[in-house]
Amino acid sequence: KHNLVVGNLVGELREKLRKGPCEVYPSDMRVKVDVTGLYTYPDVVVVCDEPRFEDEHGDTLLNPTLLIEVLSESTESYDRGKKSGHYRRLTSLKEYLLVSQDEPHVEHYACQGDDHWLLTEATGTDTRIELPALQATIELSEVYARVSFEG
């Protein structure tokens, strides 16, 4: 389920953003939170400004616009807690998604400025998430395409 959801997210975002300035990276793109020193591999990364990398290798992004974590039983508490706290210290970060792999449910955190984040939730495959920083909308029916919730 996790891999299907990540693949669907990458595909959907790449399609929605292909004519604009944003780049979509799968889980192999490392992100560094400079202020805390955390290095991490989010499931999906989007950058809409000129990408800034830690060094000439181009494998550690410093300025993501959107980060997405697909929750699993083993990582959910860390993704919601400490990792989310690190992410919110990124001045470039405008939006953060926590995506369930066990049901069609997405939590969308949008930066409102001054360290204030607004939570919006979408549940069910007939709903969508608006991503204002990317000027895009993603349908949960696409995020969860071919994902079975039985068993």
Concise structural overview:
With about 150 residues, the chain is of the alpha+beta class. It is built from four helices and eleven strands; from the N terminus they run αββββββααβββββα. The longest helix has 16 residues.
Folded structure, characterized:
- By secondary structure, the protein is of the alpha+beta class.
- The chain contains four helices and eleven strands; from the N terminus they run H-E-E-E-E-E-E-H-H-E-E-E-E-E-H.
- It has helices at about 1-15, 75-80, 80-85, 140-145; strands at about 25, 30-35, 40, 45, 60, 65-70, 95-100, 105-110, 115-125, 130, 135-140.
- Strands 1-4-6-7-8-9 form a six-stranded mixed beta sheet.
- A hairpin with a 4-residue loop joins strand 7 (about 95-100) and strand 8 (about 105-110).
Question: What's the SSE blueprint?
Answer:
Blueprint: H1 2-17, E1 23-25, E2 30-33, E3 38-40, E4 44-47, E5 60-61, E6 66-71, H2 76-80, H3 82-87, E7 95-100, E8 105-111, E9 117-123, E10 128-131, E11 136-139, H4 140-143
Parallel strand pairs: 2-5, 6-7
Antiparallel strand pairs: 1-4, 2-3, 4-6, 7-8, 8-9, 10-11
Distinct helical segment count: 4
Give the termini distance in whole angstroms: 12 Å
Shape: globular
Low-confidence stretches: none
Task: Give the helix level as a range of percent.
Answer: 10-25%
Given helix and strand content, the structural type is alpha+beta
Give the helices and strands as they follow along the chain: HEEEEEEHHEEEEEH
How much strand content do the residues show? Answer: 25-35%
Number of DSSP-assigned strands: 11
Give the biggest beta sheet.
6 strands, mixed
